Amino acid sequence: MAADKPAAPRELAPRGRKFWRLTVEVHELEPEELELLREACRTLDNLDALGRAIRVDGSMVKGSEGQSRIHPAFAEMRGAQVVLGRLLKQLAFPEPEAEQSEASKRAQKAAQERWRMEAERKVGRHA
Fold this sequence. Notes:
Layout: H1 14-26, H2 31-57, E1 60-62, E2 68-70, H3 73-91, H4 102-126
Antiparallel strand pairs: 1-2
């Protein structure tokens, strides 16, 4: 890996390391974004571990009184998927230009204009 690309954290499992590597190859991230990326990668690894537990134990397991119940890892997976979605949304990776819809391009332009106006307002206040 190039010296200017941050190395994947050591605690990551294969899927997390792969996502890290692919992400830092395409995006230049600030330190706080790297923290979000680390958490997203750890969440991907957790999802893999939960999936393995379900494959090993089966989708149904015995409950505390011997009854069949759905594997508790399913609920954990749903929670991890929500967390992953939120982390990726916080990272706000831009869409590749060719794949952006016209509505997405308009929304991006409007957001940039709002940020420009907000910055001008703040500068005017401090001048």
